[in-house]
Design a protein that fits this description.
mainly alpha, about 45% helix
Length: about 170
Amino acid sequence: MARQKKTRKVGKIGISKTPSNVRKPTEKRVKKHLGKPAGSRNNEALTVKQDPKKVNKDPRHGSKKPVSLIADKKEYKSASKKVKYFSPTQELTAIEQDPRFATLLDKIELGKKIAKEDQHYVDQTLARHKVLCDMLGLTDEPEKSKKSSEQQTDLYSQFEAIDINDFKD
């Protein structure tokens, strides 16, 4: 018989009654899962109740609206914000210094045709200018100066027409 070396391992004492390949059924501990499982982005759309209005909605965030790469003039004009002014004088000066308004008025004075949108803009701006001038009490200066010059000439002619002898006793 062959000799066996001594070991520190404790082996089985005796023969087991059950075969070694069959184990007792034991309950395994349930592991806690962290995070969502793989592919959750695509599975969420299937598990959520689907509304009849929102069919085939993509669960990813963001807008799917196509964006044009070329800026249109109409979109640029409509995107401009309306500026609020603190006083009518500020609004009046802004209207008088508006380069678009000035160029359109120059075109109209030269007799050139302008687009309907531009004509509408000119009409609105002129109407607002007139309202602001009325609010501030500003009127056409040349008319006043003509009237005042006529009154001065009338007064001077009356002064010339006065006879000094009428005032003597």
